[in-house]
């Protein structure tokens, strides 16, 4: 062990040198270090000191990510082989969780396959112990640590949303789900890019060749958007659920083909749209004509329900929901439909602000009806309770004032929330950082797109026909995409 540790800790230099290593020096150093550690026999990595400490007890995964990863893999292999000299699963679980939570984001760029094996083992152990929920946080940490931007969609993202849905452990997956998807993985890493360059886009180091992800087909991308939308719906975050479902609904397909997942997403999208806006949503313009026609035919019951929600009475809406119970159950949308019924009266109350600035709770009671029962609430007090709950959860901008002898009065406030100067400045700073990061990614994507072979072919074709317009850039209306592979290109989403 005494001879082993210096080799394991040889890179990166610690403490860091006064003059930081250049990217080229770092790249050469870590590749040499990986080669050395990878060449060590598992038996050496499993050695212990006289006091009983193993390698993982002596090194820090945030500093020495490379030896920690290979030692973990050696232990995993030994456990699978039934080696009795290796600690039981309890310590291994803790070590794996610590690793994915504290790994160095620069070093891990060279260890995609190794990280994948460790992540798969975490999920395997969670499933074998019937504790799937326990795997959600480690997988989330793993994804964010090797790609803090979250801009690259990988097969691990799909794994995460499935784990989250199956375990109903929604909240712990949100840090990953909140990241906007800008790229889809390609196979090869650009030769001119060094993996250790921390200013590089994730598209330069997250590739199928590097082991960070498997190849994605369009069905898997659709499944991610659908599952993400369902998770947000489970969290009652209707705005994010709506956007994610819309990503699936408007996803481009060959010759207007529509998959079952797109139809499932459309049905949920209608219901979530009612919950978000209080009215039936309109398909985005980018939706293909063929897809739109299929949606309107197959999802007719949902569109009818949405139309009644917007223009019909509470009793009619309840009747329509009751008639379609078998449909909602078959589509696993009964829960959302029940939320829609509960939202009907709340929407009525919010819409009163378009007419009145203030009114008594008695008048609110008389002007609104519950679609859950088809009748008015049993008392004015019940209506006041509903109004106060809406104000408390932020869905109604209003105040309720009441006196000992006078009726309670509902006063509607202007839309929007008044922020203090400090809160406003803080939110502005956060938004500025987000916009800058997104702008940088857009610039990279724009550059990558203009160097794609399909775009170059189109450019040459236009040049021969002498109808080229340089200002069209990547958005030329007549671009002729020739690539019919199902694997996705690393173009900006």
From TrEMBL:
Q: What is the protein name for this chain? A: COP9 signalosome complex subunit
What Gene Ontology terms describe where this protein resides (cellular component)? COP9 signalosome
Q: What residue stretch is flagged as signal peptide?
A: none
Q: Which organism is it from?
A: Lachnellula suecica
Pfam families from the UniProt entry: COP9_hel_rpt
| Record bears the keyword Cytoplasm | yes
**Assigned keywords, A-Z:** Cytoplasm
Q: Does the keyword S-adenosyl-L-methionine apply?
A: no
Entries under PANTHER family matching the protein? 26S PROTEASOME NON-ATPASE REGULATORY SUBUNIT 3/COP9 SIGNALOSOME COMPLEX SUBUNIT 3 (PTHR10758), COP9 SIGNALOSOME COMPLEX SUBUNIT 3 (PTHR10758:SF1)
Matches recorded under InterPro entries: COP9_N, CSN3
Which gene is annotated as encoding this protein in its UniProt record? csn-3
